[in-house]
Design brief:
2 domains; mainly alpha; about 475 residues; about 70% helix; two-stranded antiparallel sheet; disordered N terminus; single chain
Length: about 475
């Protein structure tokens, strides 16, 4: 069976051209099938929307393919993935689905209300690709970090693993205790669990760090040791399985689909950077992701809608992929564009500065200003403030909408150019680090997919906090392996 590293030595241009041709032919064919039921103006709107969505999706794929050697897990391919589900696929879902979620996503408006979001997505995609390509050879070196990682002691890390496992279990216990988890049956095991302080969500940072981020980092280091070792032991394989299960436990119990997928995705990125991921392994990882996704969504429906588990699972269709506001959502971007500065005032960069006080626990500072804009967006645009008081959460803007909220159309291109350049700098710098040590390899695998997908679906502060947290864990683990008492 051929592995994906073989792809790196071949020109991907034929594949990309074929993808573009297939996409546009599919778009035209689908529109032609429904054109008889559309008025001429509706057909023109549908044509513009689908064309913008196709360009937004294909531009990163093409740009990534032009970078040699080709890498299926290129950062721009993660950006393309977000545009595929959030823009291209969602537009088709809105055009041709009879799901009640369509009116909810559109806020009972007509389909042409998302034209601004589709056009901005196309322009934003092009700007990110352009700036990424302009700085793709520029890199930063981190000599002190590389020096710290190079002193990583493998045998001492193995001795640390039992302690790490115990700490992670303790963190999981206290997180479940803080969210008042109570097992009453299998159908209640996966549900949204948040800690609310005066109606504002608390991230439960220390417990999440121990129960979610720490086992994920340990898993990636163990995978790195497995992938780079000549002799592979059964205890090492057992450690990978144990920490993999623990890394998924909290996200599954908290019904956090993205975090479960990130565990699987980061593992695939690491394997591909070392020996190349085989196609059957990638297919298996995709299958596991689908099972986890559908299982968690079925359990959530049971909790929120009072459906039976079998009924919930049988009624799932394309809604888990397109009937939501995840990824680079075109509907959310359109609503925010229409609401700024009317319902939401310009932030003038303030949302990018909340990272300064984010580490302070809300338990110590109950009146701490909101770190992320999801709550404000939900209250002012979607008029669902009462839901937040009971369940917490919010609607994160995504970097395209966050640029509009902060600087409007004038600042939009500058923010997206900065994002593309920043992603290139991070990728270049961490790629170099990944070749020098196992912790560097694990750091790259943890940061790149998380940063690319989180920044498109969430907000800049949240994406940076997640990446900095993982970086901190890798540094601490490397330091602990150098201590003589270990």
């Amino acid at each position: 069976m051929e592995n994906l590293t073989t792809f790196k030595t071949r020109s991907p241009l034929i594949f990309v051209v074929a993808l573009m041709v297939f996409t546009f032919i599919s778009v035209l064919a689908v529109l032609a099938c429904f054109s008889l039921e559309m008025r001429s103006d509706s057909f023109r709107v549908a044509a513009v929307l689908t064309t913008c969505g196709a360009i937004a999706f294909i531009a990163p794929v093409l740009t990534a393919a032009l970078h040699r050697p080709y890498n299926i897990f290129h950062p721009l391919n993660f950006i393309a993935l977000s545009f595929f589900f959030g823009v291209f696929g969602r537009i088709f879902f809105l055009l041709f689905s009879d799901s009640p979620l369509v009116s909810d996503l559109l806020l009972d408006r007509s389909i042409d209300s998302i034209l601004p979001g589709a056009i901005l997505s196309m322009i934003g995609s092009g700007l990110v690709c352009f700036s990424y390509s302009m700085v793709r050879k520029i890199t930063f070196s981190f000599p002190r970090v590389n020096q710290q990682f190079s002193r990583f002691k493998e045998h001492r890390f193995y001795l640390l693993c039992p302690l790490i496992f115990v700490l992670s279990c303790v963190g999981l216990y206290f997180f479940l205790k803080a969210t008042e988890f109570e097992y009453t049956g299998l159908d209640r095991i996966s549900a949204k669990r948040r800690v609310l302080i005066d109606g504002v969500e608390s991230g439960s940072g220390p417990w999440r760090l121990l129960a979610q981020d720490l086992p994920r980092a340990t898993l990636l280091i163990l995978l790195g040791l497995w992938s780079t070792s000549v002799r592979r032991s059964i205890p090492l394989l057992f450690g990978i399985f144990s920490f993999g299960s623990l890394a998924i436990a909290l996200p599954f119990l908290a019904s956090s689909r993205a975090d479960v997928i990130f565990v699987i995705l980061t593992a695939c990125v690491l394997v591909n950077r070392t020996n190349g991921i085989r196609l059957e392994v990638l297919a298996f990882a995709f299958l596991i992701s689908l099972v986890a996704l559908f299982g968690m969504l079925s359990l959530r429906r049971v909790n929120q809608r009072g459906m039976s588990l079998s009924e919930s699972f049988s009624e799932l269709n394309l809604e888990p992929f397109f009937g939501n506001r995840s990824f680079a959502d075109v509907t959310k971007l359109s609503h925010i564009y229409d609401s700024v500065p009317g319902l939401i005032d310009y932030k003038y960069g303030k949302s990018f500065l909340t990272i300064v006080y984010t580490p302070i626990p809300r338990a110590l500072w109950p009146s701490k200003p909101p770190v992320r804009m999801g709550r404000e967006i939900t209250e002012k645009i979607y008029n669902r403030g009462l839901d937040l008081k009971e369940r917490g959460g919010g609607t994160p803007p995504g970097i395209l909408a966050e640029a509009i909220i902060n600087f409007g159309l004038i600042g939009f291109p500058f923010v997206l150019l900065a994002v593309g350049a920043g992603l290139a700098l991070v990728d270049n710098s961490l790629s170099r680090m990944a070749t020098l040590s196992v912790p560097g390899l694990a750091l790259y695998s943890a940061v790149i997919p998380t940063l690319c997908l989180s920044i498109m679906a969430g907000d800049l502060t949240g994406a940076l906090i997640d990446c900095l947290s993982m970086s901190f864990i890798f540094l601490v683990l490397s330091l602990l392996t150098r201590l003589k008492f270990v």
